[in-house]
Design a protein that fits this description.
By secondary structure, the protein is α+β, with helices and mostly antiparallel strands. Helices cover 32% and strands 22% of the residues. The chain is globular, with a radius of gyration of 21 Å. Bound molecules: coenzyme A (COA).
Length: 381
């Protein structure tokens, strides 16, 4: 039994922060920190912090702005983090709420009623709690049937989630599966870290996968897919439930010596990530095109993970053997920044309406783990 993609959904926060606003907030924090630490800086015990720069951010990453759930506290030099109030257990949790918003749009587009969905997978980088699963809460909010579970493969969560959903459908467990990617990436970002403060934004996406015989006539056939992982410490977030069990003097707690950066938030060796992930992804796409009898140049579009524009340009160039036309590998990170697993799905959602029957494309994720996922699709109908 074939599993196809019936529809996608996108929920975007109303507020966004431009590079200029972000840099103004950061630089005010730098002035404050340097003045508070003036004596130690003068004595040579601490390095003064240096300003961030909007032009650097755009050149290094392609990011111009990011949507966020909690704008003012991120820009407040006294806070430099989102402030998302805790909610009573009986109220919908924020992650489930934004996931449901994106899911509703996918259901509407497919003309599907929630009760006809029989599985929900919440696949994202940062889950709000251990349990009950966010996906089970989304199931309850939407009124879907069957079962639900959470999974996390960092930036590749959406493609791995799509493959998990296809497996459930082909194995007979479900006929209609919602894969939802609520990504509140600003909550795992250290806004006091100049190297990384510009990287992430918040969003939620959804993909509805269905058994071919119940799907709408106009859908996306999955013509091939491949998932890979390869362990790396170059992108890491050590936040977890064991944190409060570690003795304070174990040498790893607190700052790791880098500008007060705590390892319970996102940390990366950006240069190494760039160097190692580009060839890994280019090889994956090239090999899988071959395995599926596809010429990469016949792909009408590649909806790539949205972490860094220079990375995407290089991957596309390696795969296609020539400079890319932006039409072929569309960019959303200029407006959304890196939204982890949701990035390639936002690109797919926004830049696929011109596909005609038989056109092929590739959804491709990559990120922490390392992990990468390639899903080749063909428009039907
Ligand atoms: N403003 C101004 N200057 C900055 C800056 C900022 N916000 N952040 C860093 N710089 C400076 C650095 O201090 C360094 O200066 P130096 O050469 O005098 O030492 C210079 O810019 C280059 O810094 P570097 O960190 O080496 O930047 P980069 O060119 O490697 O770009 C990334 C940084 C993160 C954009 C880049 O490594 C990258 O794209 N990596 C891919 C990984 C990725 O995107 N991961 C996301 C998670 S999936």
């Amino acid at each position: 039994m074939k599993a196809v993609i019936s529809a996608t959904g996108l929920w975007t926060p109303k507020d966004s922060i431009s590079n200029e606003e972000l840099v103004t907030g950061y630089n005010a924090y730098v002035d404050k920190w340097n003045s508070e630490n003036a004596a130690e800086i003068e004595a040579g015990n601490k390095d003064a912090l240096t300003y961030s720069d909007a032009a650097f951010i755009e050149k290094a990453s392609g990011i111009k702005s990011r949507f966020v759930i909690s704008k003012a506290p991120i820009l407040d030099p006294e806070i430099m983090a989102p402030r998302i109030p805790a909610r009573p257990d009986n109220d919908p949790s924020i992650l489930a709420e934004i996931a449901a918003n994106a899911a509703r749009q996918a259901l509407k587009t497919a003309g599907r009623k929630a009760e006809h969905v029989d599985a929900v997978i919440v696949a994202c980088s940062n889950l709000q709690r251990g349990y009950p699963a966010i996906a089970v809460e989304v199931q309850s909010i939407l009124g879907t049937g069957g079962f639900a579970f959470d999974m996390n493969v960092a930036c590749s969560s959406a493609t791995f989630g799509i493959e998990a959903a296809r497996g459930l459908i082909m194995g007979g467990q479900a006929r209609s599966v919602l894969v939802v990617n609520p990504e509140i990436c600003t909550a795992h970002l250290n806004f006091k870290d100049r190297d990384a403060h510009f990287i992430f934004g918040d969003v939620a996406t959804a993909v509805l996968l269905e058994r071919e015989d119940v799907a709408p006539a106009r859908h996306w056939e999955v013509i091939g897919a491949k998932l890979i992982t390869q362990f790396s410490n170059n992108i890491r977030n050590n936040f977890g439930f064991l944190n409060h069990c570690a003795p304070e003097d174990d040498g790893l707690q607190g700052d790791r010596g880098k500008k007060g950066l705590t390892d319970k938030l996102f940390v990366q060796n950006g240069r190494s990530v760039f160097k190692e992930v580009v060839p890994l992804v280019a090889k994956l796409i090239t090999e899988q095109c071959q395995a599926n009898g596809l010429d990469p140049n016949d792909l009408k579009r590649m909806w790539l993970h949205q972490a860094n524009l220079n990375m995407n340009v290089l991957i596309a160039k390696k795969v296609l053997g020539k400079d890319v036309d932006i039409q072929q590998a569309p960019v959303v990170l200029d407006e959304y920044a890196n939204t982890s697993s949701a990035g390639s799905i936002i690109a797919f959602h926004k830049y696929s309406s011109d596909f005609e029957n038989g056109d092929t494309g590739l959804i491709c994720s990559f990120g922490a783990g390392y992990s990468a996922g390639a899903i080749f699709v063909r428009r039907v109908g």
